[in-house]
Amino acid sequence: MKNKILLSIIVLSFGFIGCLKANGDSNQTNSKGGMMNYEINKSDEDWKNELTPEQYKILRQKGTEMAFTGALYKNQDKGKYVCAACGAVLFSSDTKYESGSGWPSFYQPVKEGVVDKQKDSGYGMERTEILCSKCGGHLGHVFNDGPRPTGLRYCINSASLKFQKE
What we know:
Elements: H1 2-25, H2 44-50, H3 53-59, E1 79-83, E2 89-92, E3 96-97, E4 105-106, E5 115-120, E6 127-132, E7 138-143, E8 153-156, E9 161-165
Antiparallel strand pairs: 1-2, 1-9, 3-4, 4-8, 5-6, 6-7, 7-8
């Protein structure tokens, strides 16, 4: 009987946390505390028609692809990495490095302002989510364990990017 009660409490807790997370995502604020407004605003139906199911899950529903499976994870060609949803230039091959995380990793965006940062408290962790500043698409997360000169690791889902070879 005690096990059933404990299991019920755990299940209800996860449901409650999920509701809080879903509620928190509806009012996105940037790292400066301001509301995020995007140049490109489309309906969910439009995004579903334009993106692959995997891209939609990651870019619009904040999903994550499995580590070491992304098409761009091992890419070493010279070029630009653009948002798969809107084409905004986000990262350069010059700042890509092998982090061992299983996702494409960069130590900085191509220029200031091309990505927005947002607090992510999902799954009981405190992280910083990275979004495309043009369309609001979820790209991944940034961590403070990267190489010089920034010390940052932008850990990005391959499906949220397209690569333009030089």
